[in-house]
Amino acid sequence: MKKEPLFVALSNQKGGVGKSTLTVLLASYFHYCIGKNVLVVDCDYPQHSIRIMREWDVKNVEKNARLQGLLVEQFGDTGRKAYNILSSTPQQAKKAAYDFIDRSDIGYDMVLVDLPGTVNTTGVFQSIINMDYVFTPVTQERMVMQSSMTFVLAIREYLNCHKEVPLQGIYMFWNKMDKRVSKELYNAYMTILRSLNLPVLDTTLPRAERYNKDAGQNGQIFRSTLFSPSAALLKGSNLDLLAGEIEKITGL
Question: CATH number of the domain that 87 lies in?
Answer without folding.
Answer: 3.40.50.300
